[in-house]
Write a structure and sequence with these properties.
2 copies of one chain form a homodimer. Chain A is α/β, with parallel strands linked by helices. The first copy, chain A, has 2 domains: 103 residues, acylaminoacyl peptidase (de novo design (two linked rop proteins)), CATH 1.20.1440.110; 237 residues, 3-Layer(aba) Sandwich (Rossmann fold), CATH 3.40.50.1820. Chain A contains 13 helices and 8 strands. Chain A has an 8-stranded mixed β-sheet, sandwiched between helices. In chain A, strand 5, helix 8 and strand 6 form a beta-alpha-beta unit. In chain A, helix 2 runs antiparallel to helix 3, helix 3 runs parallel beside helix 5 and helix 4 runs antiparallel to helix 5. The N and C termini of chain A lie far apart (46 Å). The relative contact order of chain A is 0.10. Chains A and B meet through helix 1, helix 3, helix 4 and helix 13 of A and helix 1, helix 3, helix 4 and helix 13 of B.
Chain lengths: 353, 353
């Protein structure tokens, strides 16, 4: 049993997310059992990931592609959770992060449907994403998937599956301050900028229908996607899950946030607060004219459901809030209550399937 | 937290099985939290299943087949666990069982790949199974999947997936004393009889290659499949997971088994012991001439790894035992350490993929 209250809090909050996103129950149980204090987090999870990585590499060597894909996909997500909020030790965090990226990258040709790593020119460098297409589809619509404060594209397989099964391609990408984008780029409240770069990229491809693009985002991405939709006429529908409407207020009430500070590239919590205050849909939500589905959890204390309700209220297009009774942050404990349904909603708006 | 030691024991033993086989973590947590004593088990799980069933029926009504398939598949497996060892109240058990069967049956056309319910003539009645075929395959080989003392075909989706992805069809069936077969037929140690009926049925189909049939079994099925392989020349390879070699000995050492007694249709534990003693591969294992992979968990106290090791030692064909370090019964806590690998093993022997 974990003794460090920080460890206990992370475990309590995120267990359903870990499992839903592909961590085997045994890894979750063994990793958390092995963590006496927070400093052990990254190493304990990485040790579990190594088991899957070794099996995946052995399967690759043996020419067993399907097994390799399964093991390396799992290795990637377990390494990702080794990394996810471990900003207190950047060297350790980055080492696990590189392995997460490498494992999922090696898995991509072998998972069903396969994925490819894509590079998206952005500002003075590039962003990276994972593109997967529904099998057999000609020029499918695309769902652009926006990550949160600590999620990354390596964690998205189970969310991608809902769209892929319904005839939509998925492009999960690490934006500024996220995953591979967090070292060079700081958290960027004006998220329409990276989304525009992603859509510009999609328009260069002839295997996708860039006239049917949906936006989806989880946690902070539940702000990023609606924010981008407000400024991006190429977005035809938008789903935001447990995003903040006014993060400055929450940041202050919660006494700041160290992960946010680091990924906003700020030297102090005061400086980070100036960034947090820019995460605010006041006067912006009304510019959202495409269909909006704002999802939240009734019991979410990080970004309470009033935030998502306000998005739906203030958006000017057809919009609705789906607040899940008993749901926690991102209603990860109730994914079965909204993931299939919201993917159907998106499919309807993008004319998929 | 569960207080009844019987509840605590079931939860402790089976948590990884529940999750691996498709129970959402939240259902597992909420159902077990709601169970103060054993009598509550079936109703608490059924209440969780009802949520999925209602969503599935709503999705069916709305013409959302993919969502319907997901919800009803989950409903089926959660109802199955309401039922699984609840033999102390047959009326309750049977009501949940019927719902498990009905939900999975409704899900079958909508899951990927789809399944069909098949009826297999056996003795004076029929057995029932679920047949799924790998997409696009012409005349694929088939893996006949044998259940255990408390598993049933409604629980097999994640195990089926390993074979389907590798180009093999799956036929999971409820044999005598199992699932739909447990009311009319008693547990039958001479399991080559139902397996022969299943293979006879497969030979009547022109969409499968009945010359390439593998047997697979889990828990008691880890005895049933090797037992059938010993007498069934049409079996080309066999995987047995955590099966007993000599169940009479274990039954006695464990003070009998009420679930076994009921499903063996015995009035007393003494009578059940006479059935248990017939579950014995002494003088039988040596007749297994097809390739055999006997899998076990190092820490399995129900059917210790010496049982599977002995099967591999005494079989006369190419055989191996894979005993997983740290594995519990059926190594359900380490499925990722053997499910992909053993499916590759089967694919190799059946010339699949």
């Amino acid at each position: 049993m974990a003794v460090d209250p920080k460890v206990a809090a992370v475990i309590e909050r995120w267990a359903p997310r870990f499992i839903s996103n592909g961590v085997p129950l045994t890894d979750y149980q063994e990793a958390t059992k092995a963590i006496a204090n927070w400093d052990d987090w990254c190493a304990a999870w990485a040790r579990r990931a190594e088991i899957h990585e070794a099996m995946g590499m052995a399967a690759l060597d043996a020419g067993k592609g399907i097994s390799a894909g399964e093991h390396l996909q799992t290795a990637g997500v377990v390494y990702h959770f080794a990394k996810f909020v471990f900003v207190g030790d950047m060297a350790q965090m980055k080492a696990s992060h590189e392995k997460a990226v490498r494992c999922r990258d090696l898995a991509l040709p072998h998972i069903d449907p396969p994925g490819i790593r894509v590079e998206i020119p952005y500002a003075d460098a590039s962003l990276f994403g994972i593109l997967r297409k529904p099998p057999g589809a000609q020029s499918p619509p695309v769902v652009v998937m926006c990550m949160g404060m600590d999620s990354a594209k390596e964690e998205m397989a189970s969310n991608e599956a809902h769209f892929l099964k319904r005839g939509m391609a998925s492009l999960a990408f690490d934006g500024p301050g996220q995953g591979e984008g967090e070292y060079h780029f700081a958290i960027t409240p004006e998220y329409e900028k990276p989304v525009a770069a992603v859509i510009d990229y999609l328009e260069t491809r002839d295997d996708l229908d860039a006239s049917r693009i949906g936006l989806w985002g989880v946690s902070f991405g539940g702000y990023y996607a609606p924010r981008a939709a407000a400024f991006e006429p190429r977005a035809k529908a938008c789903i935001g899950i447990s995003g903040p409407f006014d993060y400055g207020k929450l940041f202050k009430a919660q006494g700041g946030n160290e992960v946010f500070r680091v990924r906003a590239h700020c030297a102090s919590m005061e400086e980070a607060y100036t960034v947090a205050k820019r995460i605010d849909l006041t006067g912006v939500a009304e510019k959202i004219s495409c269909p909006l589905l704002a999802i939240g959890g009734e019991l979410d204390t990080l970004t309470p459901p009033a935030e998502q309700q306000r998005m739906a209220n203030e958006a000017s297009g057809p919009s609705e809030a789906l607040i899940l009774e008993g749901g926690n942050h991102c209603a990860n404990n109730l994914r079965h209550m909204y993931s299939p349904q919201s993917a159907d909603w998106m499919a309807g708006h993008l004319g998929a399937g």
